[in-house]
Amino acid sequence: MKIKLLVLLVIVMLLAPLILWRLKAQVPSSFAESRRRMVQNQLQARDITDPRVLAAMGKVPRHRFVPAYLAPMAYSDQALPIGQGQTISQPYIVALMTQWAEVRPGDKVLEVGTGSGYQAAVLAELTDRVFTIELLPELARAAEARLKELGYHQVQVRIGDGYQGWPEEAPFDAILVTATAPEVPPSLAVQLKEGGRLVIPVGRPGFVQQLIRYRKVAGQLREEARLPVMFVPLVKPAEAK
Ligand code: SAH
Fold it and tell me: Is position 116 annotated as part of the catalytic site?
């Protein structure tokens, strides 16, 4: 009996380095490694195929856009709180919206709902002309500072109501709305260029909404794709108080 135990102990000791080595291989050693796995397991494994979008998602340090205590979860397959009752979308949704927006170098892009600034940074990897609007001043200021610190000087952040769009900079090649509205805000439809793409969750807050990709064809929005999603509401400023 004793001998058997001893043999078992020896075997375990001999195998220990191998077991530890295997375990280590499963725990990502850095944020860069977590990001690489996120791209592979959450984006490529689904339907993100645009190499420029995959490269952008593989580059932007998402862990810098979430509160410090959530940094270890930054690359997990989920949305995360960013304060003020708001959330940063799941990586897959950010990638899908970016892929649907078909952003080419030189395109002018508007994002409504800056939040942490993460989606804006991903867009800034694809074009130099990114404009983003945030209703909540604290979030807007924090996002602006973060984007500058990370070198995304080309992103312009405005505090304001996204329902109005950004008329001075219109028209846009692509508009991404990262909060849900009951319908497409008319100003955004107007500010979209002919041939431009509008990606927006449409529906009621707290219920399943439809993320819809429209393209402006002959002055009209034509629906091209949709997916069920859950987003925080696009607030009408009168309701914000
Ligand atoms: N795109 C963000 C996440 C957005 S969460 C990111 O990458 O982190 C949605 C954001 O929309 C919130 O920050 C919310 O304050 C903002 N928002 C809500 N209503 C708005 C409005 N009318 N105009 C502009 N921003 C609005």
Answer: no
